[in-house]
Amino acid sequence: MKGDVEKADLGAAARPVQQYGAVDPSADKVSNDEVEKMPLLLGIWDISPNKLYKVGLAVYVGWFVIQRLADIAYIATVDARFPAGLGHYYPSEWERLESVSYTRQVLLCRFLHRICAFSTVLAFIVFGLFARFDAALRVALASIAIWWESNKLVTSTREWWNRGTACCCVPIWSALTACSCCAWCSQLKERTLNGRLATGIWSLPRLSWRELLIGSTYLMLIGALFYLISAPFVLWSGIIDLSFGFSNPLAVSAGGIQSNLFFGFFSLLIFTIPSKFVFLSVLQFRLGWLFMWSLLMVVLVWAQYNIKDIAPSILDMQNPFPNDIFAVGRNFPWVPTASKASPWISLNRIYFKDPTISSASASFATNDKSKGPLTLTQHADGKFVISTPSVLYDPSAPVYAQSMSAVAGHVLEDLKTKTWTVGGANTRVGVRSGSHLRDELYGFARDRHIGIAQIYMVDGSHKDIRANAFVAGAGNSSVIGLFDTLFLGQRNGDSSGSVVSNSLLQLVTGEAEMQHASDIVQGVDTGEEEVQDSTPPRNSAPTQAMGDAEIISILAHELGHSALKHLEKGMVVQAVTSFITFAAMGWMAHSPLAAAALGLHAPLLHVGACAYDLVVGPPLEGGVKLFTDWHTRYNEYEADEYAALISEKYATALQSSLAKLSINSNHDPDVPFFYEVLHDDHPSFSRRYAHIQKVKDKAYGPR
Question: Rounded to two decimals, what is the model's pTM?
Answer without folding.
Answer: 0.79
